[in-house]
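User: What would this chain look like folded?
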Amino acid sequence: MGFLSRLRRIVANRETPVDGVDILAPVSGRIVAIEDVPDVVFSEKIVGDGIAIDPQGSQVLAPIDGTIGRLFDANHAFSLESPLGLELFVHFGIDTVELGGAGFRRLAQEGQQVKAGDPILEFDLDYLKEHAKSLLTPVVIANMEDVASMEKDEGEVIAGQTRILRVEL
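Assistant: Here's the prediction, encoded as structure tokens.
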């Protein structure tokens, strides 16, 4: 979404732009630099910039309020768009699409409105540890052209509670 369409949406909804959008951890675990993800699509920021998380737990939660744009058939990844036009992409693990959905269960649907912290996917961590190339879970901003600045957090995170990124559009 470009600047003008985002501005039209702000005016139409009588929203005021905020200083920034806090993005919460979609999974619990430890933040890892996006450059350390063992997939060039993420490490070279081809699909956008962000962070990755070495996951724990059993659920992937919505990192922001928004609308689920795409929930992939293999239930390993989804996109989310905020009311102000921030476009996020969450991808659980590397090469997990090749599992054809095994190890994942869908808890939400495409087009669904969600609040930060709402469950989107459930995963079987033990199964995925055994079958996935990597469990590192990238969380990337897909529309970096609309981002004025981004602050990346570090350390251990709790899904739905800990901020991982702050983005100014």
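Helices lie at 3-12, 40-43, 125-131. If you want, I can go into more detail on any region.
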